[in-house]
From TrEMBL:
NCBIfam families from the UniProt entry: F_box_assoc_1
InterPro entries given in the database record: F-box-assoc_dom_typ3, F-box-assoc_interact_dom, F-box-like_dom_sf, F-box_dom, SCF_F-box_component
Upper taxonomic lineage: Eukaryota, Viridiplantae, Streptophyta, Embryophyta, Tracheophyta
Organism domain of life: Eukaryota
Coiled-coil regions listed: none
Domain F-box: 1-46
Protein name: F-box domain-containing protein
One Pfam family linked to the record: FBA_3
């Protein structure tokens, strides 16, 4: 085909194919192998996939841990009328020595896994399920004393390079943590960690309970500001993956006065969201807030309350249609409609902390590292 069609037309055709078909095309000839595994082709295919995901029905992946077979399961669900009825399952090739992995986040086809959920193993993996390829990150600098750390994952919007940021706090007096912390960044293109000199935050993230929200190329976490009039005050810490600088986002007074462990950060329809629980353990109800205009504190809006009469455990994520995916105390995943109050059982069982929901797309990221054996 390459003898009869212009190079640009071949690229146009191949980038429209699904990932599985593209992987078969790699073996057609050396020229196609070189083309498909080139960084330019992978980025072109990725950009087309991102554009199509905004037009077509997106896909969510749901992770849960099955205590019967002691394995993590990742199922794919289309954001359409088949959600909760029809799904497919990804092959998960890893086994955490401590149960199941913490999912730091998902971005452009990569899922960042860390085995620190119940310990301090510090093995971090970037996994692309579409091409069954992964990269285990080199060990970061070994902390010099008792510590806790927080991770963030996403893509630099300027260079399209994937980055993992690691923020390490050391034990201080009265079982607290000292600030500012040490900060390191892993960049996929270089395959190595480096320390950064930008001003690290002088406030502390929530130990063990931390999670991230990626919006506009910026990673966000819930944190405590202990400098505020000698009292704890909650806020959002952000890290720009392009500029590699920290910033903070002020929460409305109703949230800032809450204990940070009662707050959880998320993404609702591409906007930054904060979930306010009435208490960390034995939750009765929660409230969902959204920052409608990014970076504008006055745009924080209380969307709705959820009260399941003492059966609510945790909000796991949100669907495009506004449904809330949550875990009640029956250790299962359900879809809750905040407009009608109706609940749909998704028939997915698991430990509440093992549930994770994120967007999913098939991409070729990491493919350039695959070098199959080929003939002439």
């Amino acid at each position: 085909m390459s003898d009869y069609l212009p190079h640009e037309i071949i690229i146009e055709i191949l980038t429209k194919l699904p990932v599985k078909s593209i992987l078969r095309c790699i073996l057609v000839c050396k020229a196609w192998h070189s083309l498909i595994t080139s960084p330019n082709f992978i980025v072109t295919h990725l950009n087309r996939t991102i554009l199509n995901s905004k037009i077509d029905h997106p896909t969510l992946f749901i992770r849960h841990y099955d205590k019967n077979d002691h394995n993590e399961h990742y199922t794919l669900h289309r954001e359409d009328e088949t959600f909760g009825v029809s799904f497919s399952e990804l092959e998960f090739p890893f086994k955490s020595p401590i149960g199941y992995f913490r999912i730091v986040g998902g971005c452009n086809g990569l899922i960042c896994l860390s085995d620190d959920l119940f310990g301090d193993m510090e093995t971090i993996i970037l996994w692309n399920p579409s091409i069954r390829k992964s990269v285990t990150l080199p060990k970061p600098s070994k902390p010099k004393s008792p510590h806790m750390f927080v991770l963030g994952f996403g893509v630099d919007p300027m260079t399209q390079d994937f980055k993992v940021v690691r923020i390490v706090y050391y034990k201080g007096f009265f079982n607290g943590y000292e600030a500012p912390p040490d900060v390191e960044i892993y960049t996929l293109s270089t395959g190595s960690w480096r320390s950064i000199n930008s001003a690290a935050p002088s406030y502390c993230m929530v130990e063990f309970m931390w999670s991230q929200a990626l919006v506009n190329g910026v990673v966000h976490w819930i944190a405590n500001n202990r400098r505020f009039e000698f009292r704890f005050r909650s806020l959002i810490v952000s890290f720009d993956l392009g500029e590699e600088v920290f910033d903070e986002i002020v929460l409305p007074d109703a949230l800032a006065g809450e204990i940070a462990t009662n707050l959880s950060i998320s993404v609702f329809r591409e906007s930054l969201a904060v979930i306010e629980y009435d208490k960390e353990i034995g939750t009765m109800s929660c409230c969902v807030w959204v920052m409608k205009e990014y970076g504008v504190a006055e745009s924080w809006t209380r969307l709705f309350n959820i009260d399941l009469e003492g059966t609510l455990e945790k909000i796991i994520g949100f669907r495009k249609n506004g449904e809330v995916l949550l875990s009640p105390r029956s250790c299962k995943l359900v879809a809750y409609d905040p407009k009608t109050g109706l609940i749909k059982d998704l028939e997915i069982l698991g430990n509440t902390r093992s549930f994770h929901v994120d967007t999913y797309m098939e991409t070729l990221v990491l493919l350039q590292e695959i070098v199959p054996q080929m003939g002439n």
